[in-house]
What does this fold into?
Amino acid sequence: EIVMTQSPATLSVSPGERATLSCRASQSVSSNLAWYQQKSGQAPRLLIYGASTRATGIPARFSGSGSGTEFTLTISSLQSEDFAVYYCQQHNTWPRFGQGTKVEIK
Amino acid sequence: EVQLVESGGALGQPGRSLRLSCAASGFTFNDYAMHWVRQAPGKGLEWVSGITWNSGSVGYADSVKGRFTISRDNAKNSLYLQMNSLRAEDMALYYCARDFCSSSFCYFDKWGQGTLVTVSS
It folds into this structure.
């Protein structure tokens, strides 16, 4: 089983600043890595797939990078609506999620 | 419009059974693999189970293997999760999700709103 580890658990950022979230896989998942955003009381929303491709309708301030075992989600300039929990997910085999990173207002 | 609507969540006693359903509409159901994902109160997302478009392959998280069974009825555009031998740790909001594959990458592009399973005696 591939284990996904996200860091940090919580990230405190001021609006307008950059946020960098990390995700590590216990073995290579190639580029089969997705990022989701979840706001309180809502279902998750797909942000990024294939490690770096933005899903339809996702603003350009969201970007993904990495391959193999190390991945990064960057939010270039945080907007108020971006404060949420973010999950990475590998889908190289049966899917697995990371434990999430909460992005909170500093 | 793509819609996934879960149902069947209820209060279940430890050791008993529940069956969840997910009704799909707005797309060709039998073109897609489908999954169940759960979220315990205040916790993160946990993949529970998945099934390919023709039921040819199924997978389970270790935490539910041997107790839960995923199935689908393509004629009814429906996904199911039979949950047996319920445990307190199965208490969660259960989502059904569509598995979309594009350019060799797969991801969950559509999610339902979830159905709540409570386990208590």
Q: What stands out?
A: Chain A is about 0% helix and 50% strand. Chain A touches chain B at residues 1, 31-32, 34, 36, 38, 43-46, 49-50, 53, 55, 85, 87, 89, 91, 94-100 (CB under 8 Å). The CA atoms of residues 52 and 65 of chain A lie 5 Å apart. The radius of gyration of chain A is 13 Å.
